[in-house]
Design goal:
The protein is an alpha/beta fold and about 270 residues long. It has two domains: about 90 residues, Elongation Factor Tu (Ef-tu), domain 3 (Beta Barrel), CATH 2.40.30.10; about 130 residues, Nucleotide-binding domain of ferredoxin-NADP reductase (FNR) module (Rossmann fold, 3-Layer(aba) Sandwich), CATH 3.40.50.80. The protein contains six helices and 15 strands.
Length: about 270
């Protein structure tokens, strides 16, 4: 699959520290398949390289949305680009969440830090197809309020009666009226019971480590807990095997895996 040119139509600085920016892209040539929530794409900057970024937009949305943490060669180059620049977009890649399997079930989305990206795509999809799903809950935590992404949307989502949205920060902050506490603690208090429910969890390893036992305690079976892996990868197509976890390739078999699938793989992810 080749990289196609895409124009950066809009850039939003998401966090107070300026380290996360959202890029709204529009492919300008050729047709790309619509992305499924949970998939990723390779973004490239000429002369710098290419890196995998989760697709934060739902398939019906106008732009392809990517929220990017400035950390290394490619993401630093992306952060320096102005609106209107053309970059390379290769995707969608990977499997995405099996959302058809979740119909009629209660769904809890659990996000920590900027790993919310593909869960934003999932939530926007679920709200568009709201009647097909049971209760929808999102638990989203950041270290402080200035690090929460998609603030305008969070405000809108909080007004909805068909969504339970719980925002939390690690410690009290001036003006903060939401919850205070780590994501696992909040999950224990507000998540639905595991019966007829699925949990999608994206966040830093420490959050995942402490959230999984709570979900299991609430009765979620490993088949109904989904994680998204972020192994370093190169081709994104299952050819170079750079991102393997035992026999599984994160780029092709993932990045979304159920906990039961991960339990069958070597613990090297
Ligand atoms: C499926 C998937 C989805 C992702 N989604 C997002 C997303 O939505 N938003 C986002 O911001 N990021 C996302 N990432 C992470 C992103 O792809 C990486 O941070 C990527 O490395 C950034 O590329 P870079 O060239 O800017 O950084 P790099 O130059 O690759 O450096 C990134 C970091 O890794 C360190 N590093 C460099 N080389 C190595 C090495 N060989 N081994 C270990 N560490 C090394 C660097 O010191 C630096 O801290 C995703 C990754 C995957 C696999």
């Amino acid at each position: 699959m080749y990289s196609l040119p895409a124009r950066i139509e809009k850039i939003v600085v998401e966090t107070e520290d300026g380290l996360i920016k959202s890029f709204y892209l529009k492919p300008i040539e050729g047709a790309l398949p619509l992305p499924r929530p949970g998939q990723f794409a390779m973004l490239s900057v000429p002369g710098k390289g290419e890196c995998p970024i989760g697709i934060a937009s739902a398939p019906h949305e106008e732009y392809w949305l990517f929220s990017i943490f400035r950390t290394g060669l490619v993401t630093d180059a992306l952060h320096r680009l102005p609106e209107g620049t053309i970059i390379g977009l290769r995707g969608p890649l990977g499997n995405g969440y099996p959302l058809e399997k979740f119909r009629e079930k209660n769904i809890v989305l659990i996000a920590g830090g900027f790993a919310i990206t593909t869960l934003r795509a999932t939530l926007v999809y679920l709200l568009k197809h709201r009647q097909d799903y049971g209760e929808v809950t999102m638990i989203y935590g950041a270290r402080n309020p200035g690090l929460l992404l998609y603030k305008n949307e969070l405000n809108e989502w909080q007004k909805r009666e068909d969504l339970n949205l719980y925002l939390t920060v690690d410690v009290e902050a001036p003006g903060w009226e939401g919850l205070v506490g780590f994501v696992p603690q909040i999950t224990e208090k507000v998540a639905p019971q595991g019966e007829n429910a699925v949990a999608l969890v994206c966040g830093p390893p420490v959050m995942i480590k402490f959230t999984l036992p709570i979900l299991e305690k609430l009765g979620f079976s490993p088949e109904n807990i989904y994680l998204s892996l972020e192994n370093r990868m190169r081709c994104g197509l299952g050819l170079c095997r750079h991102c393997n976890v035992g026999p599984a390739l994160v780029c092709k078999d993932g990045p979304v895996f159920s906990l039961s699938e991960l339990k069958r793989l070597p613990p090297e992810y």
